[in-house]
Amino acid sequence: MSLSCNVMKDIYVLYNDNALSNKTRDEVNEHLKECADCRGYYDEMRRLLVSRRHTAHTPRISEPDYSAVAKKLRRDKIRCEIIRNAATAAALTACVLVTAHVLKSENKE
How far apart are CA 3 and CA 12, in angstroms? Predict the structure, then answer.
């Protein structure tokens, strides 16, 4: 079986990744020996893939520090609890004062 140039372009990535059967790989090698256009295409694609692989390994932006986020969430939770407790204490104090005022006014009458 002789591979056409169009088929070569379709299977180039598989060829480059060694994902072809031995028989198909041999046919690709034979075609590349005989076809200057496909050899040029192969060389250009290999160059692009190598270039792309090098840029794929660029350093990534550092991951967020989850321990710092967790610490902030705990601190915010504690603040909310303190505010809620203070509001509850203020409400109870107001109830006690109102009750004392009402009882005091009833005693005067």
Answer: 12
Structure tokens at 3: 């591979």
Residues 76 and 34 in one domain: no
| Domain-terminating residue out of 33, 56, 79 | 56
Say how far apart CA 80 and CA 71 lie, in whole Å. 14
pLDDT value of position 82: 95
> CA-based angle 37:38:44, to the nearest 5?
95
Angle at 103 between CA 97 and CA 109, to 5 degrees: 140
CA atoms of 104 and 109, how far apart (whole Å): 9
Distance of alpha carbon 86 from alpha carbon 32, whole angstroms = 81
Rounded-to-integer distance, Cα 11 and Cα 5, Å:
10
What averages of pLDDT result for each successive group of 10 residues across the chain (109 residues)? 78 84 89 89 83 60 71 91 96 95 84
